[in-house]
Amino acid sequence: MSELIWTKSSFSEASGNACVEVAACDDEAVVIRDSVQPTRSIRTSRAALDVLITSLRTGSLGSPRG
Question: SS3 for 39?
């Protein structure tokens, strides 16, 4: 994997020490990490990240499926 270019969340604290960072892996995948533990990361598809973000924004994360 080539060197990743990390982007910090716009909601990060001013010092930048407690934030979520995302980097594009390729056309299909992204990597997510916590700046407190930058050596640990999660790789996921862009589609799955989109579903997570949409669920968080709408408050439907964890809602039972009908």
Answer: coil
Q: Answer yes or no: is 23 within a domain.
A: yes
**What's the CA gap between 4 and 64, in Å, rounded?**
36
What pLDDT does residue 16 have? 61
Q: How far apart (Å, rounded) are the C-alpha atoms in residues 22 and 45?
A: 12
Please state whether the predicted TM-score (pTM) of the whole model is above 0.85.
Answer: no
The Cα–Cα gap between 39 and 4 comes to: 12
- What would the pLDDT profile of 29-46 be if each residue is shown by its tens digit? 999 998 888 899 999 999
Q: CB pairs under 8 A, 24+ apart, for 25-30?
A: 25/1
Q: Which domain holds residue 35?
A: 7-58
